[in-house]
Structures
1.
Amino acid sequence: MAPVALETPVHTNGASTPVSISKKAHAFDPATQQLPNIDPSKLTIKLNPELAAVPAPEKLTFGTIHTDHMLLLTFSPESGWSAPSIQPYGPMSIDPMASCIQYATNIFEGMKAYMGADGKPRLFRPDLNMARMKRSADKLALPPFDEQALLKLIKKLVLIEKRWIPTAPGCSLYIRPTMFGTRTGFGVTPSTHATLLVILSPSGPYFPGVVRPISLYAESRVRRAWPGGTGGFKLALNYAPTLGPTRDAAKMGYDQILWLFGEDDHLGEVGQMNAFVVLKQDDGSLEVVTPPLDGTILPGVTRHSVLDLTRAHSAESPIPGLPTDLVLHVVERDIPIAELIKYSETGKLAEVFGVGTAAVLVPINRIGYGEEGKEIKIEGGANGFGPIAKAVREELMAIQEARRPNAWSVPCEE
């Protein structure tokens, strides 16, 4: 019996025209094969004749609503990347033997679009997302792609869906580029076929309600990532194993997991965010610390931006809201949990916060550890924010929303 071809419905005025994807097995080697790459000039657009109502910003949660359209491309070893299509959002038919189902050959990115103060939809440092997505694709031996061509298509999709961009504080249009392997068969080999899609979701704050501090449970029994593993890449397979421990932490009254690693149980990520610690120094300066990119830590775009902002802080390039003469020592190094406990006990622990695309920046107010129910308490200012977290978050959002001119805020233009 011949295998069932993967079919992707293309909706036009309510009709559905299946597009079959060939399943012939070919060994794909990007070093020896020259196949068509993503070509934005071949984009076709089929607009949805029935547009959904845009919900009020106060009703938005994170990642539960989709916009009217999506971007879709497919790859085969015979013809390379297909002509890109922007079409109505809709379900997709996947072969049960597809490698994405059987072997988790799935990658994705998290980006956001904001409506700038100038009335233009904008993306935040999208080149970093595209570069990371390309690294993730290579990690899973998925087909290579032209990241600038994909970015051009993402901008076009955002422009088409710009009515969905919420302008309320803390809201944005979340962008989820995804690539998954569609080669059929049980052999553990690279996927010679793939689908690349981009969907959009108008979203409110990642943590519902007023922005507030969250609590963490320091997990030393389960390891999220390890050197030489996949923690430094944005792969779907990294996330599923974290769900059980996070559920268990919630039962103990904590919002998220503080992942630990190594014989010294040093800090890893905060849930799905990068971790930052601020330490008081004897001379009045502050040390801003984050774990190094050792292969266990995802190189977050927000992490990159926080490092850039804090390293540049000075009288000549201050972060608004911080004293211009405040000296910040910004370092990337391991912080064992025992060291964090000592800093807390000696009064040197000033702030702990997590950063990421979805949440931007969230302060931490307590960290549980050990089987005795011990906790590290972190004092915060107004709404639980310390001065570094508050100033950095406000500066990031001002740049993202183009209230502060910066090359990181990239307009989506025709």
2.
Amino acid sequence: MTTPLYKIAHARAGDKGEQTTVSLFLYDERFYENVRQQITATAVKQHFRRLASGSVDRYELPQLAALHFVIHGTRPGGVAAALDFDAHGKSLSWYLLEMEVWL
């Protein structure tokens, strides 16, 4: 069975220059290992392929049942120069939560 991340987690995001950071926090730590295995830097890069021109770094925070992603190249020239409508990091956290995982 697959489920969207928004049913089992919440996210916080922000942007700085040409990077977006998104932290994923699971509501229930029992899902952490399963989500950790599926929501990889490669999977996030693929999910954001139309928005990110650079690499994706992932940092694991098992004590918080969280994953933190730094997505490079989301805003060429920085967020102030972006021409996209509502392209700030805050809205991109919801985009991450649309990814689905197997439970």
